[in-house]
Amino acid sequence: MEQSKISKSVFFSALTLIAFIIAPVLINQEKGSQLLNTILNFLTGKFGAFYLLGAFIVFLIVLYLAFGKYGHIKLGDTKPEFSVLSWIAMMFTATAGSSLVFWGFIEWAHYYNSPPPFGIEPNSAEAAKWASTYGIFHWGFMGFVIYCLPSIALAYAVHVRKIPTLKLSSACRGVLGDKVDGWIGKAIDVFFMIGIVGGVGTSLGLGTPMLSEAISEVTIIPPSLWLDVGILLVWTLIFSGSLYFGLQKGLKVLSDINIYLYILFLFLFLVFGPTLFIINKMVGSLGLLLNNFMRMSFPMDAVGGSTFAQDWTIFYWGWWFAFASYMAMFTARISKGRTIKGLVLAMCGGGSVGCLLAFGFFGNTSLYYELNNIVPIMDIMSAEGAPAAIVATINNLPIGGTLLLLFFIVFCFIFLATTIDSAAYTLSTVSLADSKAVREPARWIRLFWGGVLCSVSVILLYGNGLDALQTLAVITGFPILFIYIIVTLSLFKWLKEDHPGYKTQKFNKKSYSIRDADIPPANQGSSRLDK
């Protein structure tokens, strides 16, 4: 059964704030962007250490939850709703989108040239080593643990504590109590909705020009605003089709197709690209990351004055924090019946591996072309932009050309359609008056929010305001750091109340499996709401 009654205060407050955010950027894009950049520079410059410490503390907490005494607790007393592959595919495709494809190809170029970390000389061999390493760090385990902590807390609140509303404010109920039913809870939910719109809007803004360039390469249609709008309309049609069939037959099937296409695209790059370079560089980058993990986690340079941490690592952590609410609500919905450990392994392990392969295969291929003077990736980026450099990389494969670009276009369309679908589902759930975890939002509500996401992207593409929206999304990550404290305290309060006197579990092969449907359910605790 679908839910169609919306919370007018949350629904219209979110729409009003989105309009207020977009309007200044459109009216005066330069001044609007300058204001947001000033705020961002202030936060990353003055409070950058808090982002770094916050991310690392979350990393430690998630490790403790997975491998400590609470790891085997099941998030609900029923069998999982989805197979392991579909479950991981839905989480991965919901978070990755076209941003992963876009940055997977060309992010190394920024670390290689402008300027590299730790005072390394730009365009040097040492810079090339770090260039492909930082991508898998920023898109790796440290990022996914930021998603994972609120996902565990909300899944526990909904499936174990039986709190009926699937909203992030529900994960704060252990500390805030009934206050989450008032303006405080509504403010938390509206605030997170802004982060979702900013994050997904930016993904659409990155993916649309990339697809425009690919379509222009295989047709006679030149890149233009109208082509961008056409691409967004096709995304809306794909999303609408998935929407009609719902979560089980729509988004699940779309995610499964997406992951198979992704694997096939990776395989083509591995086989027809510089295979040995891809493997050797990826292994070398992993070794460099592991050897320098603490150094990369705390890269503040108070003496040398480098801004690399603020420009990249702190920026990325703010981005992950801002986007975490979206992933928490979506992941909690699809993770009923899983264990805490299984959720951590699936989200952090599966997500990290998926991103590692993108940066390892796509990024190292374009890096190889640049280092060996096969394709002037840096020059193309400078003269024509990143989308043209991505298309040039694909075209240079031995099987490159029209067919591979057509495959790339279909793959990207479906990849971002799953992201839009997941985000619209989450926004719809938050905007409901009483969102039941077991019931889906009405189709018209999901379609409406999908239309909002696409409309925001069109408006900002037209007004050149995507950078401003991305900056705003990252700025929202700062206050979310403090909301994480409430979420964490609520979770541990519930765990201690429901599972008193737990001792650290003994090693058991079965308990370490992601297939936690086979693990006997633990004591699931009280089903009451905290007062």
UniProtKB/TrEMBL annotation:
Q: How does it sit in the membrane?
A: Multi-pass membrane protein
Report the subcellular localization: Cell membrane
List all membrane-crossing ranges: 9-27, 47-67, 87-106, 136-158, 187-206, 226-247, 259-279, 314-331, 343-362, 403-424, 444-462, 468-492
Q: Which domain of life is it from?
A: Bacteria
Provide this UniProt record's keywords sorted from A to Z.
Cell membrane, Membrane, Transmembrane, Transmembrane helix, Transport
Q: Which InterPro entries match?
A: BCCT_CS, BCCT_transptr
Q: Which PROSITE patterns did the record assign? A: BCCT
Cited Pfam families: BCCT
NCBIfam families, sorted:
bcct
Give the family from UniProt: Belongs to the BCCT transporter (TC 2.A.15) family.
- Its protein name is BCCT family transporter
